């Protein structure tokens, strides 16, 4: 079942950066120093939103919101 919170996710294994595209106008966030096993657990979660809010966010990964482009 698609997530009601997350539109897309991408993980860069070389830099350990997880990019999450949130639905609506919530934006795009880059989470840093995310271990591969964390990403694997996130991908395997039945509910991405529940995993995000109850397990992932409380771990306190550094993050940055992507700035909107000039055309968007």
UniProtKB/TrEMBL annotation:
InterPro entries reported for this sequence = KTSC_dom
Q: Which domain of life is it from?
A: Bacteria
Write one Pfam family the protein is assigned to: KTSC
Protein's UniProt name:
KTSC domain-containing protein
Which segments constitute the KTSC domain?
A: 3-59
Where does this protein come from, organism-wise? Edaphobacter aggregans
């Amino acid at each position: 079942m698609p997530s009601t919170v997350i539109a897309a996710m991408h993980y860069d294994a070389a830099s350990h950066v997880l990019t999450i595209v949130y639905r609506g106008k919530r934006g795009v966030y880059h989470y840093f120093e995310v271990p591969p096993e964390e990403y694997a657990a996130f991908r395997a979660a039945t509910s991405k939103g529940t995993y995000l809010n109850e397990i992932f966010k409380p771990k306190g990964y550094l993050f940055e919101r992507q700035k909107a482009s000039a055309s968007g």
